[in-house]
């Protein structure tokens, strides 16, 4: 019998985090039922060699170039054989074997296409990062993370539909992959999983938050919260998301709002904070979008 769950882990210059994650997988999961695929996504050094040495039960794939979040995960998905495929950030940790409950969640309803677990911060410990997402504003292209920074006291322990899965930990069925396809790769970083969820939902599938499974996330180790890189992609991809997932006059209102209101406000705020490089990156995101053909 093949694996029930294929876990895709994308590594980019983050071998220590990746090794710690693999150690937690080895500790808590029965590897007879799990396939783990690690994609070394253009790391400066070929980190797949060391990963394969320490954890030979994992399947390692090396990309010589950084394919981005979607591209790296898609490369792993193409090599997977499990009935369900989990995208799991390399800076996460398992605290128990509860991830194996997620494939069972799909059995409750044939229209369930994606499931995300509860995600807790590593620091501060015991505080929630994700307990579902609110719906996305049609104009501002912003939403809220349910439970964010609340102490986990069981207040979000009910399985429920949610607007979006969390890219750090999400399980999709093989059926969804066959009927909807993989993530679009031109986002490169940020918003790609939300764009994917929009496509999945448009095909009639439900997106579920299931708190019976819990993971720990060492948020923010790869990209700083106000780094120029993050600001560029957040601005650019918010505009791309509006272009791809809004129609008619709402699409144009949303794009104009981003360019004339949201981005100038963010630009000035970053200048006031003494971060001119990040401020400039917001404008670069707009210019990229306007010049893209």
From TrEMBL:
One Pfam family named in its UniProt record: Glycos_transf_2
Statement: the UniProt record of this protein carries the keyword Transferase: yes
Signal peptide per UniProt: none
Domain Glycosyltransferase 2-like: 6-180
Key words of the record: Glycosyltransferase, Transferase
GO MF annotation: an example: glycosyltransferase activity
InterPro entries: Glyco_trans_2-like, Nucleotide-diphossugar_trans
PANTHER family in UniProt: GALACTOFURANOSYLTRANSFERASE GLFT2, RHAMNOSYLTRANSFERASE WBBL
Family statement: Belongs to the glycosyltransferase 2 family.
The name this protein goes by in its record: Glycosyltransferase 2-like domain-containing protein
UniProt lineage: unclassified sequences, metagenomes, ecological metagenomes
């Amino acid at each position: 019998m093949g694996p029930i769950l294929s876990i895709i882990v994308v590594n980019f210059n983050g071998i220590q985090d990746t090794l710690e994650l693999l150690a937690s997988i080895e500790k808590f999961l029965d590897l007879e039922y799990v396939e783990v695929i690690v994609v070394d996504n253009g790391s400066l050094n070929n980190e797949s060699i060391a990963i394969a040495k320490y954890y030979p039960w994992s399947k390692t794939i090396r990309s010589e170039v950084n394919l981005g979040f979607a591209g790296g995960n898609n490369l792993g998905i193409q090599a997977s054989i499990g009935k369900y495929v989990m995208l799991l950030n390399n800076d996460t940790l398992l605290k128990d074997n509860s991830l194996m409950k997620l494939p069972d969640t799909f059995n409750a309803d044939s229209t369930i296409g994606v499931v995300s677990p509860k995600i807790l911060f590593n620091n501060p410990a015991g505080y929630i990062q994700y307990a579902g997402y609110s719906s996305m504003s049609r104009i501002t292209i912003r939403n809220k993370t349910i439970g964010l920074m609340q102490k986990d006291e069981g207040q979000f322990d009910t399985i429920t539909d949610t607007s979006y899965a969390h890219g750090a930990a999400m399980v999709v069925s093989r059926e969804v992959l066959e009927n909807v396809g993989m993530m679009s790769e031109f986002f490169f970083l940020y918003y790609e999983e939300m764009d994917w969820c929009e496509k999945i939902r448009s095909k009639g599938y439900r997106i579920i938050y299931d708190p019976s499974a819990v993971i720990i996330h060492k948020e923010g180790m790869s990209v700083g919260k106000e780094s120029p890189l993050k600001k560029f992609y957040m601005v650019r991809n918010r505009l791309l998301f509006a272009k791809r997932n809004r129609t008619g006059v709402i699409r144009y209102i949303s794009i104009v709002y981003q360019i004339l209101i949201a981005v100038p406000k963010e630009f000035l705020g970053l200048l006031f904070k003494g971060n001119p490089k990040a401020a400039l990156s917001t404008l670069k995101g707009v210019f990229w979008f306007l010049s893209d053909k």
